[in-house]
């Protein structure tokens, strides 16, 4: 039978800031603990069956999540994170703000583009904004790891469809084709914003993030 639809991001977020779902925090923490020496982080797929199994366990856990330290293959942990983000009813970049993100990323002037993107990010629902910030800081750390060989361009290709998605739940084949390069551009542009911008959303309450 089909897994139940996952709901929107806010359904999984804690009640105190930063509003980042425990599953996201735990996956990112585990990846940073032992994945930053792995080539192709987030690009190499994990075993699908294990990804599904662990995602189900984490979503079912409620309070304390089962430890991911027992997952031998770090690519499975990456897969759980991507699968969770992809399974949301609405991507992290919400349907209503989707056009604004695409437009902002298209601005040729870097400074103007950065200003526009910051403005659109600030309009996201708080849980989406905090989670996006948390993920951007994580992906910047991945991009800085020489062993991963995952620069901003590679990461934006992997995370464009996952984070930006489409402007509706049922995009046409044409929209899918047109959106794909633009999704990557949005993520690449977001990753070029200064880390301090992202830290502003998640570091105020950093101690709450420790799982």
TrEMBL record:
| Domain of life the protein comes from | Eukaryota
User: What is an example of a Pfam family matching this protein?
Assistant: RhoGAP
- Quote the SMART domains the UniProt record gives: RhoGAP (SM00324)
GO biological process terms on file: mitotic cytokinesis; mitotic spindle midzone assembly; Rho protein signal transduction
Domain called Rho-GAP: residue spans:
7-198
List, alphabetically, the PROSITE patterns matched.
RHOGAP
Q: Name one GO molecular function term.
A: GTPase activator activity
An example GO CC term for this entry is: midbody
Question: Which PANTHER family does the entry link to?
Answer: RAC GTPASE-ACTIVATING PROTEIN 1 (PTHR46199:SF4)
Question: Could you identify this protein by its name?
Answer: Rac GTPase-activating protein 1
Organism of provenance: Leptosomus discolor (Madagascar cuckoo roller)
